Amino acid sequence: MSKVIYTSTSEGFCWRYLTPWGIARNLLKHRALIASVTERDFRANYHASYLGVAWQIILPLIMLSIFYFVFGRILGGRFSSNVTETPVEYALALFVGLGFFNFIAQTITTSPSLVTGNVTYVKSMAFPLEVLSVTSVLNALLTLVIGLMLTLLILICLQRGPHWSVICMPFYVICSFLMALGVSWGLSALAVFIRDISAITSPTTLILMFMCPIFYPASMVPAKIKWIIRANPLAVIIEDARGSLLYGVWPHATSMATTIFVSLLICVTGYFVFMSTKSAFADVM
Q1: Model-level pTM?
Q2: Exposed, middle or buried by CB within 10 Å (0-12, 13-18, 19+), for 264?
Q3: Which percentage of the chain shows pLDDT scores above 70?
């Protein structure tokens, strides 16, 4: 791995950066640093491991096998009203939903320590702290992408897909990435001033898990409380992505427009919170 030495001029937060293209432009200036830190963290996850990166494939396959035997065979769960749905297809539906959820859940649980756990970087005026969230989210994103690729491969082996609607999957991956970035920036900044943030992340992810249609289809939710699902952007992503990948259901244009808008809003809001409080990190820590 090549060594990247980063230097930067001291530059205050500018309102013109508070746009999607402004954020992208700022991050692209640090692309070499982001690539270097992401690769370093990825290698560190499997340092001294005999199987190394192979665990990225082995662990999802183990989880998928458990879903198949427990939820598909023993409990006989179903996501679709189609009577021909097999236990394998149900396991894949559960696997896809948990893949998106785990991506966001991992972001929520790791974000509070991103800044507080890197005091050396905080004290260095030359290091762009905002890239810490980017590298953390990118490493978590890799697990999600590998899981989706395995799902596609299994569908092909079963000769049941993929459907043409699978071309919508990159859209939902990008929306999840933007949402995770915003959450990571916001939580990592707030955790500097409110240390209790790290204590509430675990119960928050547990509540979020049951508010998402992971173990059940959204159609089972009673009409009176269905607004909870519709108001949860992650729940919408899980339901629409599952339908696109496994059942050939094309998402509605309105749903896609709302999803990208909410994802960008979360991303920009989190970035604003981080950059507007960044100058005070060193004083607090």
Answers
A1: 0.86
A2: middle
A3: 86
